Amino acid sequence: MTVSLRIDILSVVPDMLHSPLNHSIIHNAREKGLVDIQVHNLRDYSTDKHRKVDDYPFGGGAGMVLTPQPVFDCYEALISQRDYDEFIFMTPDAPQYTQRDANMLSTKSNIMILCGHYKGVDQRIRDELVTAEYSIGDYVLSGGEIAALVVADSVARLIPGVLGDAESALSDSFMDDLLDAPLYTRPAEFRGLSIPEILRSGDHKKVREWKLKMSEDKTKTIRPDLYKLYLNNQ
After folding, report:
1. For 202-226, how does the pLDDT look when each residue is reduced to its tens digit (9 = 90+)?
2. What is the pLDDT of residues 187-202, one digit of tens each?
3. Contact yes or no for 74/125 (Cβ under 8 A)
4. CB–CB of 118/54 below 8 Å?
5. Is 190 left (phi over 0), alpha (psi -120 to 50) or beta?
6. Where are the CATH 3.40.1280.10 domain residues in the chain?
7. What would the 3-class secondary structure string for 101-162 be?
8. What CATH superfamily is the domain 5-156?
């Protein structure tokens, strides 16, 4: 098999990324040669003798800001080797990342992800280099590494051949703007608790109808915003 997707992650604290990238589905995807994920330490591109990558913001204010020089130099080194479809910046002040974004990114060949850090990054990085910005939620993390891992994992699992069961990803929550239906496994009876009888009926059509109804009801209750989107797309 040939690599279907390459992801380059730019970080100030790369050690935060190595362990998650070497376990579970992402590890399997890399072992199979389907996904190539490379981590780059921005300090390696700093021209400062102390490998400094941050500085005080112009105009005052608390916190430090990631300076443009290491990011621009790392970016230019990478694009000299291959073309990139997207240069993504993970930041809380961006549109929320969704399954639709993951689906779209899984069709790309080369993606670069910049992990935000400190108070933020120099705006010139966002203006000149970044092609897409995503937030994983309305909260602030210590850095963008965890957010970058969210993107890498959600995209990698969609690459054909990564999951043992190709249909598993297709039936995930959010794929059709619906949350997944309740799931049950053996035993059918456990401590006096039974699974819904329809799931033991053997009638595949009725089971599909039941799952859809459960998904609709669950989405309508928990995520009315998502349910509205589902109705609009019917």
Report:
1. 999 999 999 999 999 999 999 999 9
2. 999 999 999 999 999 9
3. no
4. yes
5. beta
6. 5-156
7. HHHHHCCCCEEEEEECECCEECHHHHHHCCCEEEECCCCCCCECHHHHHHHHHHHHCCCCCC
8. SPOUT methyltransferase, trefoil knot domain (3.40.1280.10)
Strand partners, 9: 39, 113
* Calpha distance 82→38 (Å, rounded): 14
Interatomic CA distance for residues 150 and 126, integer angstroms: 20
C-alpha span between 215 and 210 (Å, rounded): 9
- Please check whether residue 169 is in contact with residue 158, taking contact to mean a CB–CB distance below 8 angstroms: yes
Q: Are 89 and 114 in contact (CB under 8 A)?
A: yes
Contact (Cβ atoms closer than 8 angstroms) between residue 105 and residue 97: no
CATH 1.10.1270.20 residue spans of the chain: 173-232
Q: Superfamily for 173-232?
A: tRNA(m1g37)methyltransferase, domain 2 (1.10.1270.20)
**What 8-state DSSP symbol labels residue 95?**
P
